[in-house]
Amino acid sequence: QSVLTQPPSASGTPGQRVTISCSGSSSNIESDYVCWYQQLPGTAPKVLIYKNDQRPSGVVDRFSGSKSGTSASLVISGLRSEDEADYYCAGWDGSVSGVVFGGGTKLTVL
Amino acid sequence: EVQVVESGGDIVQPGGSLRLSCAASGFTLGRYSVHWVRQAPGKGLVWVSRIHPDGIRIDYAGSVKGRFTVSRDNAKNTVYLQMNSLRAEDTAVYYCARDQGGEDDMWGQGTMVTVSS
User: Fold this and answer.
1) Nearest-CA residue of chain B relative to A59?
2) Partner residue opposite B47 with nearest CB, options A46, A54, A100
């Protein structure tokens, strides 16, 4: 059972916009930054969003992040087949003095 | 090339020990916090530990506290994860991550640890 709650699956058709949610609490999301990772099959996670809504250089602007209160969201616009992957949210949790991850969302492009 | 590379994964019996290494190239690892994150087969990401640049401030997940020890050797541009009293549930791919969650977030390809008799 993960500290941060994500839907286990999401799906969309090419060109659609998909939102993946991440729900936490006052000790994690509400009080610190959230980041988002994409993990393609058989590869290491890659950061898509850091500090809630910042994109590292090299990440396309089809990916965007936001945070409000104890929840965060990742939006993928203009869905493409290569976006099919697992997505994880993560953040620092002051109550356990550690990083907590969401359980991951498997995105399927139909 | 700027990268971090994990090594040291192996098959070990329950109760055994293993030391993982996270070696950096192309940059100075000592300037960054380094995290260890693991992923059991078919499961999600689980944070294990963090060591600050000073090598003094270290945090551990409750599941590994007292069994795992993180250290760093800045002269070798390397961070280590010493794992003792290994259990079957420690079986996972172990990743090291530079500046996890930050602008310079970068992960290695991972190293597999299997705990089995």
Assistant:
1) B103
2) A100
Of chain A residues 66-85, which have a CB less than 8 A from chain B?
A: none
**What φ, ψ does residue A97 adopt, rounded to 5°?**
50, 55
Chain B contact for A63, CB < 8 A? no
- For A64-107, how does the pLDDT look when each residue is reduced to its tens digit (9 = 90+)? 999 999 999 999 999 999 999 999 999 999 999 999 999 999 99
What would the two tokens of residue A26 be? 């006052």
How many angstroms from the chain centroid is the CA of residue A56? 14
Question: A90 and B45: CB-CB below 8 Å?
Answer: yes
Chain A residue whose CA is closest to B36:
A99
pLDDT digits (tens, 9 = 90+) for B78-110: 999 999 999 999 999 999 999 888 888 999 999
Contacts of B104 (CB under 8 A, 6+ apart): B32, B98
Continuous segment of H or E residues that includes residue A13: none
Region of residue A104 (phi > 0: left; psi between -120 and 50: alpha; otherwise: beta): left
Asked if A2 is an interface residue toward chain B (Cβ–Cβ < 8 A), one would say yes
**Short-list A64, A58, A54, A37, CA closest to B107:** A37
> Using CA of residue A39, residue A43, residue A46, residue A48, what is the dihedral sign?
negative
- B-chain CB neighbours of A96 within 8 Å are 61-62
Alpha carbon of A10 to those of A19, A87, B24: distances in Å?
Answer: 8, 10, 36
* Kind and range of the H or E run holding A100: strand A98-101
